[in-house]
Specification:
Length: about 325
């Protein structure tokens, strides 16, 4: 009986110990809430930094291979119809430099984007007087804009921005004269003159009827040669021109962070409004990957349109093409 009583006491004591909370000295203290927040997976921001009021910077050298579709006209040369694919442009690209950057503090940011490129292109003038027009083009653009972050969250942001875009276009064009086309034009002019004035000449000079046909043909050929020489001499064969202007621009851009590593970005702006070009449009959409808080890569599509037509200089072109950039954030 005493043995049973001892067993009952031991069981009761064990039950009490199981029901009691663990002693404070042996319990693991819960981690502070800020530690948990710091360890939770947060999406990388476009410009990293724990201090939202501190300065953050971004530098992105990039490559852009646009096509060239539209019209280019220089002075007295005929307007050249451009139909160059991105692959064609890459073949004719002499060299280029492309880079964009950003400085941000809080909700405010300063955005910069610029490129300089030189192309050598060949185009069909679309008429018989010229065989070919070869153009050497230099193009540069520098954009500077002030941005304000209207929406911000760990997973996305939206900025509005406004500023200006400096444009420079320099081109020299050389045209090869098509002698056969010039002679065909001259012969047509002389034939129309003969058809119109021939009856009057015969009426005034009846003796022309007695001139052998071979002599008249020789006279006509001589006239075609002389007129062709004069026309070819007057045709422009080489011109150079350059223009620069500044377009006001307004735009919108944003980014969505799908994970800490994967994001999508887009932007669009419009400008010109007759201040420089009649209208200019710039749009871009990319998918990117963050390798770390300081290095990322994005790739996608960029499209620009420029409509400039002033002072006998026409540049009305669409430029769509693939875009890729390496991002450095600090």
């Amino acid at each position: 009986m005493p043995t049973l009583r001892r067993l009952s006491v031991i069981r009761a004591a064990a039950l009490v110990l199981l029901l009691l909370p663990p002693a404070t000295g042996f319990s693991a203290a819960p981690p502070p809430s800020d530690v948990l927040a710091d360890e939770s997976p947060a999406a990388f921001s476009l410009v990293p930094g724990r201090d939202p009021d501190g300065w953050n910077f971004l530098l992105e050298p990039y490559a852009w291979s646009p096509g060239l579709y539209g019209q280019i006209g220089l002075k007295d040369l005929p307007v050249a119809q451009m139909n160059q694919s991105p692959v064609d442009i890459l073949k004719t690209l002499d060299w280029g430099l492309f880079v964009r950057g950003e400085a941000r503090r809080g909700r405010w940011g300063l955005l910069g984007d610029g490129f300089f490129a030189q192309f050598s292109t060949s185009a069909d003038p679309g008429q018989g007087l010229y065989r070919n027009i070869t153009t050497l083009s230099q193009q540069s653009m520098v954009s500077l804009a002030l941005a304000y972050r209207v929406l911000t969250d760990r997973r996305f942001f939206v900025d509005v921005y406004a500023g200006g875009r400096y444009n420079y276009l320099g081109a020299s064009a050389s045209a090869d004269v098509n002698r056969a086309g010039v002679e065909a034009l001259s012969e047509g002019i002389i034939d129309r003159a003969i058809a119109k004035l021939g009856p009057r000449l015969l009426a005034r000079y009846p003796g022309l009827k007695n001139v052998p046909a071979s002599t008249l043909q020789q006279a006509k050929e001589l006239g075609v040669t002389k007129l062709s020489d004069r026309i070819e001499e007057k045709l422009p064969k080489h011109v150079e021109a350059d223009r620069w202007w500044i377009d006001p621009i307004v735009g919108l851009r944003g980014q969505v962070n799908f994970t800490r590593w994967l994001f999508a970005a887009a932007q669009a702006d419009a400008g010109g409004f007759g201040a420089g070009s009649q209208v200019t449009v710039n749009t871009q959409a990319t998918i990117g990957v963050n390798f770390s808080r300081n290095i990322g890569l994005e790739a996608g599509y960029r499209y620009m349109y420029i409509d400039y037509d002033k002072d006998n200089f026409l540049y009305d072109v669409n430029m769509p093409g693939v875009f890729a950039g390496l991002i450095f954030k600090f």
